[in-house]
Amino acid sequence: MNNPPKTLSVLGISLFALNFASANAEEVRAFTFDVPSMQEQSQTAGITHSYTGPWEFFVGGGAASMDCNGDRMPDLFLAGGDSSAQLFVNRSKTKGALKFKAQPIKIPERDLLKVLGAYPINLDNDAYQDLVVIRLGENLLLKGLGNCNFEKVNRAYSFDGGREWTTGFSAIFEKGNSFPTLAFGNYVDRSAPGTPWGTCHANQLIRPFGEQKDIPNYSQPIKLEPGFCSLSMLFTDWNNSGEPALRITNDRQYYRGGEEQLWQISPDTLPKLYTQRQGWKKLNIWGMGISEADINGDGRPDYVLSSMGDTMLQTLDEEADEDLPVYRDIAFDRKMTAHRPYVGGDAKPSTGWHTQFADFNNDARADLFIAKGNVESMKDFAAFDPDNLLLGGLDGTFHEMGDKAGIDLNRKGRGAVVQDFNADGMLDLLVVNRKDNVSLFRNLGIKTEWGHAPMGNWIGLELDNGLINKQAIGAKINVKTGNLNQTKTVQIGGGHASGQSGFIHFGLGVAERATIRIQWPDGDWSPEYRIHANQFAVIRRDEDKPLYWVPVEE
Amino acid sequence: MVRHKTYAFMFAAGLSFLLAFATTGLSKDVSWAEKTSALTPSASAPTGTLTANELKELTARGEALFKATFTDLDGVGRPGATQAILPTKARSKALNKFARTSGLDAGSCAACHNQPFIGGAGDFVTNVFVSEGFTNADFDSTDPQFSNERGTNHLFGAGLIELLAREMSTDLASHRKQVLADARKVGKSASITLITKGVNFGILSADPDGLLDLSNITGVDDDLIVRPFSQKGVMTSLRQFSVNAMNHHHGMQADERFGDRWTGEADFDEDGHNDEVGAADISALVAWQATLPSPQQTFPKDEDWQQAAIEGEKAFGEFGCDTCHIKALPLKVLSFSDPGPFDVSGTLNSTSVKDSAIYDLSLLAWTGSLERNEKGEILVPLFGDLKRHTMTDQSNEQLGNEMLSQRFVDRTIFLTSELWGVGSTSPYGHRNDFTTLDSIIRAHGGDAAFSKKLYSDASEDSRLALIAFLKTLVIQP
Questions:
Q1: CB spacing of B272 vs A2 below 8 angstroms
Q2: Sheet holding A140-146: strands in order across?
Q3: Do B477 and B443 contact (CB within 8 A), yes or no?
Q4: Contacts of B1 (CB under 8 A, 6+ apart)
Q5: What is the ipTM of this complex?
Q6: CB contact under 8 A, B21 and A5
Q7: In this predicted model, what pLDDT tens digit does every residue of B66-76 receive, in sequence order?
Q8: Residue of A nearest to B40 (CA)
């Protein structure tokens, strides 16, 4: 209960106390929301997998998470560097311990080596998720066949996987196309004179070509030049125009005269870089990963860019013309620079890799995960550099809770996926580590004196756009609870060499129901869907009511 | 610059102090203090199975809270928040602390729930104006475009109602599990009719991959949780309803939804009081409501009336009234756990506490008089089905006066009113604006249109007999 001061003599003390309290207020009462308890379970879950290899595999180390056997539980494809990539089928019990079983991938072993990352996508509009595998050397298109079997379809889809050192990928369905447009981000050209300094490969954009009937034809790549040693790329509708742009984050370690990039991708025309005349500001960072979310609620995506040292959070400058891509950084204001380790005492800068917004504590506020880890043994950067879990608080600020959540392990994180692996409504986390086993964190909820308890309410949404672009890449989801609107775009790309598909998770806090509208990839709006909390729903285009999915109860 | 900030801070702090002092008044802890002594926001909620004495003690505190006229010293008021069930900041300060429309609209629970005595229903004068409270939250009009005007329901037998709903929800979940297993077993779609306690909630279909088609279910939400409270059947539990009502009607915000775990603020409603209502307070309110005796049929001394009531009960069946106003639903157990199993975050539930409290309703003398069936199940004489139905049609829109759906339930759909106690709680209808039983029966449309026609076409004696019967369903002290 509130106990107001009773006498004026107490007032002075109270003022002092208030002043003192004010100075410490942010430390003492800054974060009152739930902190998820993340329990590392990789060994008991049956995943033994490390990302290894020489210099070329200092970067990469991604994971792809998708349902490859039709049970709607997320399975895993993990990059191995000079170790073999592996596939793990999800055998977790609903709401139970995480369990995975390795399943051989029936493609030539040499194709499973030198893998830096992977992204799940339905390339050919069939019933199965396919995989785009990015490698040091030939990239792969793996067609899903069901039961987590895949076949290489580079030749069948007229796709030249190239010989570049590919470190990034994104995909989008452009208007009028039956198959996705693919973008590949490439790193250093190791064969160029003077390599590695200033010798970045061009990136690639590949639109489906010719008649688009049963299978795509990717025979006509377009070079995106100049390339500045990209480490992540993401198709994004930065200005809500309905037309994609391609945001690329680049590693200043190797480029010369380079910068961050935003490509204008208009149908049937060649891509064009946004220029300084159009408001694009030069930014030089060691760009490693991209993730987007509408953090400030202005209806436009904001971008987090991981780097060495400060993490960036870029938002459109409200004082600039709204049609111009003029961004300013608000990471400091939002307390999410995450520029050095938050535990361990090392004052040297951090090295950030995979970034991903997600609601880990189901409080209806976006949280941010950043995988961290020294490149290898760079002495100017922190050696013990734990992953970050920045939980969203009041006023849009973020609060580092990695240690309280239990993810502050001494590992060199790279790629990651944030998924609900056991269908309990709480997001779990898999991090691929360099030269160490993966970290697989099960989200147990909040820790109490008597055990663990659930956090806020949630929903999981799966979209079905129909015959073309079945997984609705590019669709925008609007979830309304009370006066709060949460928006997310269905995207493939970004992060660090890692991607995921499957249910899209929204925390709802104390709301017991949500009203949902979808803007489908072609711009059409869905009717309103009304869904009660704590359920998985499947929204099929042109159907007035959602279907619901219930995991197998053990 | 620094000095300016310091002075500004001191001024602000001093002003805050003065304002706090001014708004909280005489707070000294004396027996005549103008605050509610039954409120114990920092107390622990009860756990485990309560003895008869413990239950008596708890319900006494709950009754005290139900009767209490909350004051500023308790934390009455929500100048910074709306009546919404989700913590929602007010966009502008309301002109008055109390407002008959948007609230605060009552000093105490008992101020409205008092017919024929505390815990009962309310007259038209106690109607509440139900609005989501997200936009236009401080409406000062009774215009139905802003709110749905609703009568005050009685709470007698509410514990049994919630127990019935929980058992029905459990049954429906079991049906869902069964149809999913069937579909997976045979590798093709399967369907099941959702029947629990004889009430049919439609057909649920499942595919082998775990997808459910709920387009043919009726009268229950998509999560198959039977919500037995409010005129619309949109409240899961007494606990949820109590948390809602304390905020809506009194501006007394319960920590379990409005506290800093969810809002980041100990004083979300900005009335100068932190942590106004604790879990133990809500538990006490729930315990008192859950243990209120159920209404029972009582025959008057008037022998003609007795005879008419017997005839009327027959007519009740002949007209098909008992299709929805089912005389009694069977209840397996009398253990009322609180927090309960079906609430979700924002209301404490059984997964968010170490141990729920168990109130053994069989300790209460009145439950001993309830009939049991051959299985030993308690027959709860509610005259209802805990299901929602469409109550209007094109030829009869008397119950279609609302313009706003509520919590996903369309404007013309309402929960079957339990008729136990109807003889003690005139006027009738969800707006409390039908003065006779005859008129509310004639207002039935939609799913009840045929029964209403049979009633309208019946002889006057039959209709009078039905009224005689309904008037035997009373609440007794």
A1: yes
A2: A115-121, A130-135, A140-146, A149-152
A3: no
A4: none
A5: 0.93
A6: yes
A7: 999 999 999 99
A8: A1
C-alpha closest to that of A77 among A103, A96, A43, A41: A103
Cβ atoms of residues A206 and A222 within 8 Å? yes
Q: Give the nearest partner residue to A457 out of B176, B267, B344, using CB atoms.
A: B344
Q: Which residues of A touch B273 (CB under 8 A)?
A: 1-2
Q: What is the DSSP string of B2-47?
A: HHHHHHHHHHHHHHHHHHHHHHH------TT-SS-TT--TTSPPP-
Contacts of A32 in chain B (CB under 8 A): 260-261, 264
Closest C-alpha among A4, A98, A116 to residue A421:
A98
A549/B contact by beta carbon, under 8 A: yes
Asked if A486 has any chain B CB less than 8 Å from its own CB, the reply is: no
Candidates A476, A468, A517; CA nearest to A244 is: A476
Instruction: Report chain B residues whose CB lies below 8 A from the CB of A458.
Output: none
Query: What's the pLDDT tens digit per position in A258-303?
Result: 999 999 999 889 999 999 999 999 999 999 999 999 998 899 999 9
B40 class by beta-carbon count within 10 Å (0-12 exposed, 13-18 middle, 19+ buried): middle
The mean of the pLDDT values for chain A is: 93
Q: Which residues of A touch B225 (CB under 8 A)?
A: 532
- Contact (CB<8Å) A509/B346: yes
Pairing outcome for strands A513-519 and A529-532 = antiparallel
Instruction: Return the pLDDT at A554.
Output: 53
Chain B residue closest in CA terms to A459: B223
Q: Residue B418 has what DSSP assignment?
A: P
Q: Rounded distance, CA A373 to CA A381, Å?
A: 9
Q: How far apart are CA A273 and CA A202, in angstroms?
A: 13
pLDDT at position B135, please? 87
Give dist(CA B247, CA B103) in Å, integer.
9
On the CB side of A375, how many CA atoms lie within 13 Å of its CA? 17
Report the distance separating Cα A382 and Cα B49, nearest Å. 55
- Testing the interface with B: which of A1, A391, A550 to mutate, by most B Cβ within 10 A? A1
Q: How far is B344 from chain A (nearest CA, A)?
A: 7
Residue B364: CA count within 13 A, CB half-sphere:
23
Residue-wise pLDDT tens digits, A306-323:
999 999 999 999 998 888
Q: Give the C-alpha separation, B467 to B459, whole Å.
A: 13
Record: contact B225-A545, CB cut-off 8 A? no
Query: B219-256, pLDDT tens digit by residue?
Result: 999 999 999 999 999 999 999 999 999 999 999 999 99
| pLDDT value, residue A214 | 87
Contact B262 A18 (CB under 8 A): no
| Span(s) in chain B for CATH 1.10.760.10 | 296-332+377-474
Structure-token match 């007999």, residue found = B465
B351 vs A454: CB contact, 8 Å cut-off?
yes
H/E element, B131: none
Compare CB distances from A482 to B27, B84, B212 and report the shortest one's residue: B84
Closest CA to B399 of B384, B386, B389, B408: B389
CATH homologous superfamily of B296-332+377-474 equals: Cytochrome c-like domain (1.10.760.10)
Residue A220 in this model has a pLDDT that exceeds 50: yes
Q: What is the pLDDT of residues B16-27, one digit of tens each?
A: 444 444 444 677
- Closest residue in B to A455 (Cα) is B345
Helix (H) / strand (E) containing B285: helix B279-290
Identify which of B180, B345, B408 has the shortest CB distance to residue A455: B345
Helix axes B238-250, B279-290, angle to 10 degrees: 110
Please state the φ and ψ torsions of residue A15, each to the nearest 5 degrees.
Answer: -60, -45
The predicted model scores a pTM of: 0.93
